[in-house]
Amino acid sequence: MAIPATKSPSSLKPKPRIDKSKWAAMVRNRRRMMKPNLPKTQSSSQSTTTQSSSDSYNIVEQTANPIKPRFNKSQLEAMVRNSRRFSKRSGFASHTQILSGPRWIRGSFIGKGTYGSVFVAKVINPTDEFPAEVAVKTAEISQSSTLKYEKQLLNMFSDCKQIINCYGDSITEDEKGIQSYNLFLELCAESLHHYIQRSCGGLVEVEIRGITRDIVMGISCIHCQDYVHCDIKPANILLVPKPFPHGDSGVSSHNAKICDFGLTTIYMYDMSGPVMGTECYLAPECIKDRVQGFSSDIWALGCVVLEMMTGKKVLNMDLSEIPELPGRVSDEGRDFLAKCLDQDPRSRWSASKLLKHPFIHGE
């Protein structure tokens, strides 16, 4: 076996070593280049100097020509709020993959619907049909059949302004391989439930008239397509502030929109069977006879109107007698409530008939 040739000791030249003085000069030059470019002062009284070893940095306290901030206080606070709103702490990790649909970022948690959690979402490339900020209702793909059904219903009701808008959907996958279905919905200011809570004793009648009219129009659209919502309640009524001033003008300051169609079912002549909805808003026939139909939505509407008038949640599900109302409620309001809370579902007014009632007609 051949032995590889080795270099003779004379051919191995030692590596050149840097002189210590040259090395120190290189360090000084590097520090000088990194040194902040601060203006020189004319006298020592105008500056404060600190020294470290042979090199020093002059830290100048300059009072002339202060640097103007790029943003004022309100702009900075808005930037902080926005960054918190769409921070990683929201639960949407950066490594989550978007398998279909638009690119978006999950923001703060809003609440929990019947079949999914709701978040604020920021769309990366918004369009006229797809706004920059939306609400997104999310559920695991294996449990998303109800959300997909809700999307079909919202597309059916897309021409009704009193029903929440649907902008589309997407599918995402996290780092564990779990896929989620995401439904993009219109982002509103707050729910009627929270609005009533902040009212401290009920809403003024001009607000009740306007909000009630919007709810009745939405229910009418649903019933015209032969569907029953089955879960009309303040938490499922969302509010959008009107763009013009209000107050003494006699006009409601909000538009109302119906949301959460997870329990919505098609109307059939025989609606007996399992009853769906929130217990304290169920009509007497739902509780006693296990029957749910168009008139059941009207009963729930009456409970919502009663809650707006009194500021208190309905607890007596039978409501054989309408509880005492505040003195500020008009006779028209009392009569409208009686038409909604009739014990006999056959005598209860329909949504199309309620639209002609003087309490909300012409709003």
Q: Strand tally, please?
A: 13
Oligomer: single chain
Q: Helix segment count?
A: 9
User: Could you state the order of secondary-structure elements as H and E?
Assistant: HEEHEEEEHEEEHHEEEEHHHH
> Average pLDDT across residues?
80
CATH topology of the largest domain: Transferase(Phosphotransferase), domain 1
Which residue ranges are poorly predicted, with pLDDT under 50 across at least 5 consecutive positions?
Answer: 38-68, 86-91
* CATH class division of the largest domain: Mainly Alpha
Q: State the shape.
A: elongated
Strand order of the biggest β-sheet: 3-7-8-6-5-4
Q: Roughly how many Å apart are the termini?
A: 105 Å
> How many domain units?
2
**Computed structural class:** alpha+beta
CATH homolog superfamily of the largest domain: Transferase(Phosphotransferase) domain 1
How large a portion of the residues is in β-strands, by DSSP E?
15-25%
Radius of gyration, Cα only, in angstroms?
34 Å
Q: How helical, in percent, are the residues?
A: 25-40%
Question: What structural keywords apply?
Answer:
alpha+beta; Phosphorylase Kinase, domain 1; 2 domains; 6-stranded antiparallel sheet; 9 helices; 29% helix; serine/threonine-protein kinase; Protein kinase domain; Ser/Thr_kinase_AS; nucleotide-binding; protein serine/threonine kinase activity
